[in-house]
TrEMBL record:
The keyword Transferase applies. One of its GO terms (molecular function) is acyltransferase activity, transferring groups other than amino-acyl groups. It comes from the Bacteria. Keywords: Transferase. It comes from Frateuria aurantia (strain ATCC 33424 / DSM 6220 / KCTC 2777 / LMG 1558 / NBRC 3245 / NCIMB 13370). InterPro entries: Acyl_CoA_acyltransferase (IPR016181), GNAT_dom (IPR000182). This is Acetyltransferase. Gene3D superfamilies: 3.40.630.30. Residues 1-141 form the N-acetyltransferase domain.
C-alpha cells in the first residue's frame, strides 16, 4: 500500500480541483455509459455599458438542472430581472432535456421568490448565524 499525505487547504490549486472533478466524472460516465454534463450561465447586462446586472450559473447533468449561483444587482431587484433570469435558466434546462431542477438558497436570501415561481422545499438544514438555514428546493420542468 502507498504511503499517503492528507492536505487540508482553503486555497486549493485549481488544477487539482479539476482533477477531482475529472476523476468523478470519468467514474460516473463509466457507470452510466455517457457524459452529458454542461455548464450553464444566464447573464443580464446593461445594453449600453455591458455592466453585469445579474446572472445565474449552474449546470445540467443526467436530466437535472442545477442552479448553483443567482445574483441580481441591488438597483435591479424587485423589477422582474430575477424572474426573467430564472425563466431563461429553466427554459434552457428543458431544452437540454432536464426533467427537474434543484437549488439551495439561504433563509435570508430568497426562498419566497423561488416558491412564487413554482419551486418546492424538500429539505432544510440549520446553519450560522443562529436562526439561519439552508433551504433545498426542486421544481419539475
Amino acid at each position: 500500500m502507498r504511503t499517503t499525505s492528507i492536505t487540508v487547504t482553503d486555497r486549493p490549486d485549481p488544477g487539482l480541483v479539476e482533477q477531482i472533478a475529472e476523476g468523478l466524472n470519468a467514474y460516473n460516465d463509466e457507470i452510466i455509459g455517457h457524459g452529458d454534463r454542461l455548464p450553464l450561465a444566464v447573464l443580464a447586462r446593461d445594453a449600453e455599458t455591458g455592466e453585469l446586472l445579474g446572472g445565474i450559473s449552474g449546470r445540467s447533468s443526467l436530466g437535472l438542472l442545477f442552479v448553483e449561483l443567482v445574483y441580481v444587482a441591488k438597483p435591479c431587484r424587485s423589477a422582474g430581472l430575477g424572474s426573467q433570469l430564472l425563466a431563461a435558466a429553466e427554459a434552457e434546462g428543458r431544452r437540454r432535456g432536464c426533467k427537474a431542477a434543484v437549488l439551495y438558497t439561504i433563509s435570508f436570501q430568497a426562498p419566497g421568490f423561488y416558491e412564487r415561481h413554482g419551486w418546492t422545499r424538500f429539505g432544510e438544514i440549520p446553519c450560522l448565524p443562529p436562526g439561519t438555514s439552508r433551504i433545498f428546493m426542486s421544481k419539475t420542468l
